[in-house]
Amino acid sequence: MVCVGNFLLIALRLTFGGAPNPSRWSDLSKLACDLSNDLARNPGWDPTRHFSPHANKLPPEPILEPADVPLATAEPLSVPLPIDNAPKSEVYIDDLFNCYLHRHLDRGSAILPFILHLLGRPPDTKDPIERDDVLSISKFLAEASPSETKTILGWMVDTRRLLLLLPENKVVGWSASIQSLLDLSLRPLLRFHLSPLCRSRCSPSHSSKYIPLLCLSSHTSN
Number of folded domains in the chain? Predict the structure, then answer.
């Protein structure tokens, strides 16, 4: 519930534009992320028995870079970390993504759809209020195919070359924004001249964690 003026708003759905709802999405998505990390390390979970009905909609093989692109060599770590090659999930508000080695493809590609299916009751034609599946099917099909490169929170993560890059469309957009400021020929530039650039380029949504494993999947909940 949230107070809007003299009214108390009770949201029947967690519309993402609603002021109190992103944090509530985080409550659910962080639970899903923690559960997926725990389940990935549980030998009792069999993805051939317990899985999402949407999992078979993904292509069976990951999208790989050309064979002539060499695997980059990682730099030594500053501190020793325990070896853990199991699939690993991360989350930012409603964006869940995970990474895993090719040999863990069956478990890695199945775990997040299964977790979302487990936490969100599937839609039923007898529901009094029509609702969507908790998994965004269109984004799932467009973004969740396992791949060695993936755009995550606005950044291109390349696990073959171990690079974190700006996608080409952002390079064009950022360059155009900066050039438009230079074309103003104002000296000095005032804060309100820079604020549109900062709002669109420097928001927290453009930060991401980079985990250098092989395959990446991205999932967005409705």
Answer: 1
Predicted model pTM: 0.71
Contacts of 87 (CB under 8 A, 6+ apart): 36, 40, 98, 99, 100, 104, 107, 108, 111
- pLDDT tens digits, one per residue of 32-68: 899 999 999 999 999 999 998 888 888 878 888 999 9
Domain extent, residue 48, equals 19-68+85-121+131-167+209-220
Tally of residues, the chain: 222
Q: Are strands 88-92 and 7-9 parallel, antiparallel or unpaired?
A: unpaired
Rounded distance between C-alpha atoms, residue 4 and residue 145, angstroms: 41
Which residue's structure tokens are 């990446």? Answer: 216
217 token code pair: 């999947």
